[in-house]
Fold these 4 entries.
Entry 1:
Amino acid sequence: MKNADSGDTWFFVDEAGDPTFYDRHGNLIVGQPGCSQILILGFIETQNPKSIRQALLTLQQEVVSDPYFQKVPSIRKTAVAFHAKDDLPEIRYLVYKRLAELEFRAQFIVARKIEKVFRNNFQAQETQFYDHLVSHLFEKVLHRYQNNHIYFAKRGSRERQAPLLAAIQRGVHAFENKVGQSVTTNVEVLAHRPRGEPCLSAIDYLNWAVYRAFTRREMRYFRVIEEKVSLLVDWYDSDKYPNNWYSRRNPFDIEKTTPL
C-alpha cells in the first residue's frame, strides 16, 4: 500500500432503487410497482469538485433560460437541480454530454434483492443491508488521500452520518486486515440535499444510467459515461462469479450479467 497523497479528495454518494423488501404487513413486494428489484449505491470521486459544480450550474442556467423549455412543467424541478428521472429527454442528453467532458471517477455496487440473503445475512433489517453495501463501496478507496470528504445525498428527514461513518470504518478495517497495514487518513461524512450541490446531480445521473442498464437492459446512457467507471460490482450475481466484478480489464456490459 502506497503512502497517502497529502491532498484532499471528495466523494459524492447516492442510491438508485430502494432497500425495501416487505410492505407494512410483512408481504414480500420486491419487483412490484414502487419497489425495485435492485439497490444501487454509487459515488463519483474528484479532487476538483468546483469544476464539476461550475460546469453543471452553467448548463442548468442555459437550460432554464432557453425558450424551448419555458412552458414545460418539469422545468421547475430542473431549475432546482438536475434529476435524471424527472428531466426531459432533451435535457438528459445535454447533461450526459456535459458529464462526459468532466474529470472524475465513479464506482458502483449493484445489489440484487434476494429474500434469503436479506433474512440470513441482515436479519431482514434494511439499514444493515444498506450499510453493508456502504462498507464495501468504500473499502478500498480511503487510503489514497489524506483527507476524504464524503457527501451522501440526503433524502427526507432522516440523518445517518454516525451509522454511515461506522459502516465506512468497518470497510476500512476489512481493508487493513487484508493488506496488513493501518490506514491513517481522515474521513468526514456529511449529508447534503441535491439542491445546492451539483455534484450530487452528477452521481444521480450516473446511477440512473446503471439502473436503466439493469432494469431495461438498455446500455445507451451508460455508454456515454462508461470511461468514468473504474469499478462496478454486481454483488449477488452468483451465476457469474467471479466475473461479476467489472473494471477496465473486464468492462461492464449488461449482456454479461444474469437477467433480473
Entry 2:
Amino acid sequence: MVGVGTETYLYINGISTANMEGIPLHDGTMLAPVTADFHYGKVSDLLKNDVDYAVAAVSGRTISSQIRIKASNEEELARNAWNAAWDCVLLGALFHCEVMCNIQCDKPVEKLNNASYINVTNYEFRAMLSAPYCLTQDDEAWIKRYYSTAYKLLNHNSFMTAVHAMASYQWHSMPRVQLSILWSGIEALFEVNTEISFRISLYIANFLAGNYAAETKKLFVKTRKLYSSRSAAVHGGKIKGDLGALVSESAILLNRIIRRCAELGELPKAENLIFPDAFA
C-alpha cells in the first residue's frame, strides 16, 4: 500500500453494494459501488512490469466494489490504506464470502483516465472465481449498527484469529484442512483447555442460544458432533458424514459466533456460559 495525496482507492473483488452513496465502515473509509468497467489499458503505462500488468488484467475483470480512503496527510493515508486490508478480511468473515484487494489507485474506477498511479497490492488470485456477494439492505443496516464494534474487536488476538480463519478457509482445497482452520478460529474465541469437546460445545450453545433451552440443547448436540469431525480431520481419522457439509456447517457456526461477538460488543466469557444443569 502507498500513500500519495490525501485520497486513495482499493479495488475490491468478492463483495458488492448497490448503495450509490456508499457504506461508511469507519472514519475516512467507505465501501463504494463500481459503476464502470475496469479498463487496464487506460493505466498500462503506470504499471511497473509485465507481472503487474497480468494481475491488473485478470483481477480487473471481476472488480465489484471499491474502498475509498481519505486522510489529512500522506503518512496517515498510507497507514489507513494498510489497515483497510483488514476491512476486506473482516467483511469476508462477516458475510461468509471471499473478499480481496489486488489493486490500489488514486482514482475511482470510473475516473481511471485521470489516474496518476496504480499499485498492485497482492499477487494471490482470490475472490475472482465466483460471483460477488451482494450486500442487501439488511446487511447494510447491520454494518451501520455493528461494523465499528467488530472492527474494534480486531484488537483482540483471539477475534483476529477467528476472523482470519473465517475469511481464508476457502483458499484451501482440502476439506480436512478447511475444517482445521475453521475450528482453530472457533477454539481461539473460547480458549478451552480441559474437557474440550464438552466445554466448547456447551459454551457455544449458551453463547448463541442461551435464552432458549430447546435451541441450546439442539445446538450443543450438533456442535459436539462437528467437533468430533474436527478432531478426526486434524488427527487423520475417519470422518463420518459428508465432508463438504461438515465444512459448510462449521463455517456457518463460526460466522454466527463472530457476528454475535459484534452484536454483543464483547468476546465470549466462559464464566457466563456455564449452565451444567441444562445438560444433566
Entry 3:
Amino acid sequence: MKRIPALLLISILLFSCFLDAKILFASELAADGMEYIEVRNEKNERVKFSRLILGTDHLAQEDWTDPIPRKITEQSVKNLFDEAVRLGINLFDTSPIYVGDVEYKLGNWITAYRQENPGKKIYTLSKGGFPFDLFWAKKLPEGENSFCLQEMLKAKNIMAEGYTDLPNSTDGTYASRLFGSKEQIAARVGEELGHTIKNLQGNPDVYLMHRDDGDFINFEPIKRSQNSVKTIMEALSSKDIRNKYTFLGWSNWKPHRITRSLALAKKQSDLAKPVFNSPYFSLFEMSERAIHAGGVQVTHEEMMDESFLKGIKIMPYSPLGGISILDRPEPCWDNARKAARKKYAQGDPYWRNVYHSIFTCANEERYNRLVKFTKDFNNKHKTSYTADQMANAYALAHKRTDFLVIGPITIEQLRRTVASLKLAKMLTKDDLDFLYYGNE
C-alpha cells in the first residue's frame, strides 16, 4: 500500500457522541435536495456542479484509524459511488496518490456508469502539484531543485556534498514540483497528469494544484522565496497541459497568491483562469503545525466576509463526513486524543502532524460547545441532528463556502452528511459566531 502525506479531505472526522439518537434519513433526505452552482472558465465553458463534492481520500484505506482494519471491497466502493449519484452528487474528488488505488477504482466505476447511463453527467476532480516525496525516492528529482533545500539537506546530513542520493531521508521531506522554469513545471505536472488520465480513462474536468511551490524537511517548510505565480500559470496554460482539463484551481494556496493568479488571468487572455480554491476550513482549526506539509487554512472571519477572495469559488475540504477518530466511547474527545497519541508515539507520519495540529485546548472547547449547541438546537427544533452534521453545517453556512468536499466512507455516513445541507440553512450568523467564539 502506498504511503501518502495527509492530503485533501484530512479526515479528523467528527461523529456524534449521541450514539442513541438516530437521524430519520428517509424523511430528511427527501426534503433536502442537492444544491448546484455553475462555474465558468476563460473559454466560457460552463458546468453546474453539486455543492457537495465526494472526496475519496480515505475511501479505500483499510488501516486508517482503527487497530482492526476494515474490509474494503470493490462492491462496497461501487455502492457508495452509486448512492452519491442517487443523492445528487455529480463531482468526485480524487488523486493518483490516494490510498488503495482509489483514482483507478473511480475511473472504472465512472466508465461503467456512463455506459449504463449515457445521459447522466458525472464529473471528476483530480490533483497535481504534489511535491516529490524524498523519503521514498531517496534521491533528488531530476532537473533543477532549490538551492535552499539542497543546503538544508546537507546541513542535516541527509545528503552528502556533491551527491543527489538521500540515504538518510526522513518522513515529511519533500521537493517542490512547481519549482524552476515553466518548461520544467509543465513536464513534472504532465507526468502526474498522465497517471490521472490513465486511471480515470479520460481527462479530469477539474484539476487542482494541491500544493503551492515549497520544500519541506520533517514536514517543516524551508524558508525561501517562492516561484512566481506567473511562471506556474504559464506552465499550466501550456498547450500540452491546458487541453487535458476543463477547469483549473488551487488547493492549499495562500490568499495573496490566489489574488495574484486572478489578476494575471484577467490581464493575460492566454492564461487559464483559476476557478476553484480549496483550503482547509473547519470549526476545529489547525494549530501552528498543519495537518500535512504545506496545509493552508482559512478562518471563520474570512469565510464570513463576502468580499474574501472574490472572483473564485471556494471549496474547502472538510474534516468531517466519514469514519471518525471521535467515534469513541465517552468521553469522546479524551478517548480520541488518547488513540491519536498512541499512533503518534508509534511514529505514524500522518498522526505525528494531526495529533499536535488538532488536539488543542481551543478545539476541545469548541468541541464541547458544539455538542451542547447541537443538543439545545434539537430540543428547540424537535430534530435529531448529530454533532458531525452540525459541524458540516457550520462550514456550509459561511457566506464564502461555495462548495464543500466531504469524505464519507459508508452509505450511512454519506446520507448523514448530505442532510447537513438542510441544517445549514437553519443556522444564523449568531449561531456561527457562538460555535466559534463562545460567549465572548
Entry 4:
Amino acid sequence: MKARNYSLKKLLLVTLLGTSFFTWGITALVSYREIRHEVYSLFDNELAGSARVIHAFVESLLHDGSLYENWDLDTGMAVLEHEDIPFQYRNKVAFQIWMIGEGLILRTKNAPQYPLSNKRNGLSRIRINRELWDVFALTGRDKDGDAKYIIYVAQLDKIREELADNVSTMVIVQFLFGMPILGVAIWYIVGSSLKSVNRLAWQLKRRDAGRLTPLSSRKLPTEIVPLIEAMNDLFTRLAQSFENERRFIADASHELRTPLAGLLAQTQVALKTQQEEMRTPALEKIEQAVHRMTHMVQQLLVLSRIDSDESLVEKQPTDLNQEVIQVISDLDFSAHNKQIEIELFNNNSHLIYGNVQLISVMIRNIIDNAIRYTPTGGHIEVSINAEQTLVTLCVEDSGPGIPKDMRKQVLQRFFRRVETASTTKGSGLGLSIVTRIASIHQASLYLDRSALGGLKVLLVFPQMQVQHAA
C-alpha cells in the first residue's frame, strides 16, 4: 500500500492546538480544585478567627464584670439585627454564645435557638432549614479550666460555593476567550515559519532542468540550511555527472570519427576491388582499425566509470606487488613479440588501500605504454619500494621518452606526440586514466627521464598501516 503524504502545517496546527487544549484543560481542572480547596481553607480560617475575636470580647466583658449588665439573662437571650448595614453576606453568617448551665444568651437573627453544633471545639457541618452551614466552635473556660461558655460561628456553605464558582468561571472564561486567540497565534506563527519552505519550493519549481546552480541559504532557518547544503551538493554532483557525460560523448565522437572514416574507406576498397593484392591490405587495415576502436572504447568506458562517481569506488587492502605480477604475466605475450625483457625488482608484499580493479587498470596502462613505445629488443624495469608510510611503484623503459616541456601535456586526454603517433598505436587516454585513478587513491604521479634512456613513471601511494596483535 502506497504511503500517503501529509501536510506539515496541518500536523503542526493539530498537534500544537491539541496539546494546548489538553494542557490548558488539565491546568483549568487542577486550578478549579485548588481554588475550591483554598477558598474552603480561607473561610475556615475566617470562622476560627471570628470565634477568637468573639472569645476575646466575651473574656473582656467577664473580666470587667459587665457581661450581665449588657445582656440580662433573666429576660432571655439577645438577638442581634443589623438590617441597616449593606453587607452582602449579612444573612449568611451567624453566631451564638451559650453559657454552660444557663443557655443561649446571644445569637444573630438568622441563627436557630438550638446549638449550631454538637461539638464544643473545632469545625463541623450542620443542615439548617435544608441549607448546609459550616460551624466553628470554641469553648471558653474559667480559671479552674472548667467550661464556662461556648461560642459558635457559622457560615452558609453556599458562600463558599458561590465564590469558588465565580473564580472558576473566570478561569473558564479566560480559557474560552484565550484558546481562540492562542489558536490564531499558533496558526499565524506556523504559517510564517513555513513560508521559507514554500519559498524554497517555489524557487525549485521555477528552475529549468539544466539549471544546477547552488541555492541561496540567506534568510532561512538554521534547520533548513542542512537541507539546502545537501541539495546544493546533489546539484554539484549532478552537474559534474552531466559534464562527464557530455565530455564522454564529445570525446568518443571526436576520436571515433577518424577511425570510422578510415574503416569505411578501407571497407569500400575491399568491396570494390577484385585484386587480392589490394583486398588483403585493406582487410588488414580494417582489422587494425577495429582493434584500435575496441581499445579506445574500452579506455573511454574505464574513464567514464571512474569519472561518474568517485564515492562509489569500493576500496580494500590490496597487495600492490601481486597486482604488478599479474599484469606483467598478462602482458608477457606482447612483450615477447617485441623481444622486450621485463624485470621486476624488490618482489615483496606491500599493502595499499585501494580498488583492485582500478589498480590493475592503472598498472596495465603504465606497463602497456612502456611496451608500446619501447623499440624491439628493448628493456623495461619495474620496482616496488616501501619507505616509512609510503609505497612507490616505478616503471622505466628504454624507449624514446617524453621531453620535459611536454610531460604535463601527455597527461591530458587524447594528447599524442607527433613523433610517435604515426609509429605507435594508441588512443591518448592511457596516462590520463592513470592520473585519474592515482587521484582517487591519493597517490602522486611523477614523470621523469629513465636511467635506461626512456620514460620513468613513478607512483607514490600511502602505505596501509598493519596493526599487529599485542
